[in-house]
Amino acid sequence: MQIGIIGAGALGLYYGSMLQRSGNQVHFLLRRDYETISAVGLKVFSINGDFCLTEVNCSKTAAEIGKVELVLVGLKTFSNQDLIELVRPLVGTETAILTLQNGLGNEDLLAAAFGAEQVLGGVAFLCSNRGLPGEVHHLGEGRIRFGEVTGAISERCQQLAKLFAEAGIPCEVSDDLTRIRWEKLVWNIPFNGLCALTGKSVTELLLHAPTRQLVVSMMHEVISAANRQQVKCQIDAVPFIERMLIASDAMTDYQPSMMIDRLEGRPLELESIYRIPLERATATGTAMPQVDMLLRLLLVGEN
Amino acid sequence: MQIGIIGAGALGLYYGSMLQRSGNQVHFLLRRDYETISAVGLKVFSINGDFCLTEVNCSKTAAEIGKVELVLVGLKTFSNQDLIELVRPLVGTETAILTLQNGLGNEDLLAAAFGAEQVLGGVAFLCSNRGLPGEVHHLGEGRIRFGEVTGAISERCQQLAKLFAEAGIPCEVSDDLTRIRWEKLVWNIPFNGLCALTGKSVTELLLHAPTRQLVVSMMHEVISAANRQQVKCQIDAVPFIERMLIASDAMTDYQPSMMIDRLEGRPLELESIYRIPLERATATGTAMPQVDMLLRLLLVGEN
């Protein structure tokens, strides 16, 4: 399959490299890593075994890539003002656009520009980060949950699921994109912001009783808001949070992407992970006061 | 008057020096500044005019000071485990003990050890900080509000008010120590913690709309809790907050003591400024959820 990767950070580089290794024609839109990857290729350091791609299709502009069958979007949402113009040159009438970006609002932008029937959304459970130019580190997990914006379990979904599975990427098709987005937010909203604000890892927040309780309390806030959205099936808070804590307790000093963004002086994905979810909660009559306070504290650090 | 200063930080050094300059026999319990002040005296850099005390009674232990007529306590409350043993050698049957420490619980500790009739409490509106050893900087204000733990407007109160006035320290006697303590907390609870947590000054928090709104919302929380305490007169939230914001807007990039404590790696006064007020609010049926969240975020940074 002809695949274009827009937003080749840790996520885009990792999934793109897996898809190329399994035989697809993958095109990467690159900025920071362009020179290195063009010259010497892409090195993947993975818990499942390291590998190297010596021949990589690198582009500096989306126009160079041209139309593809699948656009995989991993762009940081703080660059969403460029999203449509970056994606547009890759989109033909049959192109599927799958955004794995964080938070809410991404499918809406794409659907408004290209039509809902071309857009899929998903969430990635992937621990990865960029190393030196030309390198990507896969530290754990890697599973994708995705679905059509329309909610259909389409033939296209099944084909993409097969594509990912053949590439060694565990995946699951869902008929409830709203729910899988909000389920991810139950983790992202407390941990991304609290880690970025305090400079403490997931492990440190969980080992310290006052912040562990705060995390749980914020998870309850997010689930209450999620269950007021158009989800096909409610999230059962207590067992869901319990499972999420067990998984998080097993992480070893994990630093969420937002914490790394703050540490390295980049902007934070506050619009998609906080502002839009708060807006949707308010619109459906649910307050998330702790989430609101966290957003205010994160915003003041963006100056 | 024979006066002993326990806790000779910025507050103790400044008020002690003013009281000595106006003719009192002031004894300072010193640690960091002992060598310098013993050798060359204490330099006061004040907005009201600089001055220097060349002869200062310096002690390394409270026992050396012995009994005095007034003990002025400026100890950081994170050292309150030492409070009683530091104060005890200075206390005779007629000694007045005035604590100007931050937050709640200080008078209670002193009253339990020495009897409520010997203890007064107060709040200082003082912008000051320590410079090099042997120096103290008075940047603004300086007013004290104080009263008897018993609530009486005693003759002793009047005498102390005269003592302060003669020393050039504006002061006001109150028959409602609980109220003046909580009124101070309306400022300290939002600003001390938010500045310490975010590393932003009072001015920065107020110029940024999301945190300005958060400050106001937390002030409302504190006033609601204050009005459930045994205060003789309720705090009228809207005009009180408006006055407090006007005063705070006039500050020039002021860094509260807790922010400086965090920046310089000292512990924070979380017990007296947050934990005990939260406990008293809970005991009187008022929740302070934003204050509670702030305390949790500050606590995790203490590790």
Keyphrases for this structure?
homodimer, 303 residues, alpha/beta, Rossmann fold, N-(1-d-carboxylethyl)-l-norvaline Dehydrogenase, domain 2, 2 domains, ten-stranded mixed sheet
Work out the helicity level of chain A.
Answer: 40-55%
Please write the string of helix (H) and strand (E) elements of chain A: EHEHEEEHEHEHEEHEHHHHHHH
Task: Give me the secondary-structure category of chain A.
Answer: alpha/beta
Domains of chain A, number: 2
Number of helices of chain A: 13
Please write the CATH class name of the largest domain in chain A.
Alpha Beta
> How many angstroms does the end-to-end distance of chain A come to?
43 Å
CATH architecture of the largest domain in chain A: 3-Layer(aba) Sandwich
CATH superfamily of the largest domain in chain A: NAD(P)-binding Rossmann-like Domain
Q: Uncertain regions of chain A: pLDDT < 50 for 5+ in a row? A: none
Quaternary class: homodimer
Q: Tell the overall outline of chain A.
A: globular
What's the CATH topology name of the largest domain in chain A?
Answer: Rossmann fold
Mean pLDDT of chain A, rounded to whole units? 97
- Classify the beta-strand content of chain A into a percent band: 15-25%
Q: How many DSSP-defined strands of chain A?
A: 10
Main beta sheet of chain A, described?
A: 10 strands, mixed
